[in-house]
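**Polypeptide and fold**
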Amino acid sequence: YEYDKTKLHELRSTTKSYISALAGIAIDKGYIKSVNEKILPYFPEYTFSNNLEAKNQITIENLLTNQSGLDCDIYNPKAVGNESIMSYENDWIQYSLDLPMKDSAGGIGQYCSSNPIILGRIIEKATKMTVPEFARQTLFKDLGINNFIWNFRPDKSSAETFCQVNLRPRDMAKFGLLYLNNGVWNGKQVISKEWVEQSLAKHSIVAGLDYGYLWWTKYLDAEGVRYYGKLAQGNGGQKNYIFKELNLVTVITAGHYNMQSSSNEINAKYILPAFNRK
């Protein structure tokens, strides 16, 4: 479909894991004090409605683990918040933080696109840079990623682009290798080892799966052998797997939007069996 190694591909929700990385870098560099910071003080210019006392308890960590409590679970058709509606709102921050609370902060895990969007804006406020510029000066600079598109504008101008980053698959592989190697790239500690470990550890359960700091844990069965991988993933089949026990990173991009992707099958049927002990 006219893609080759030089062309950028949209990452969809795989972008969430890049937001997580930038949050870690912002904490490492002292722009953000810790994951325990409350989020509402970052938005003094706003007035929010619905369950304000409960919203005052939401922390940065709650955004990272999809435990904000906001009623915006993409897998719940009865949820008040809906990312398709949010996409055409003038201000996604206002829309998101106006939502009623489904649960207390730190409670049930809900897959909610509002959470990383809010976190992205917090990063911008803390660093006084746009998300793409902060990425350019830190994460992408250190990984040698010069070719990317990232328009992080949480308003209706991003209704069709979803504030997502576009990268070459081989640059996605660099990102996976960074986490595989505990935050080190070419001898430099780009992200702290502690942040990488916390990001890939289980903090909540989202859609029935163990969930870290905007990273998933999933297993794939390959000819009778089960492999657990850490995963950044997005709609359409965008998959960036890290298999620590195999010292392996796999990257697949695809266009199966809003349908079952064959990305997992490719990993399970063709790639992982090559690593099975004979």
Q: What stands out?
A: The mean pLDDT is 97.
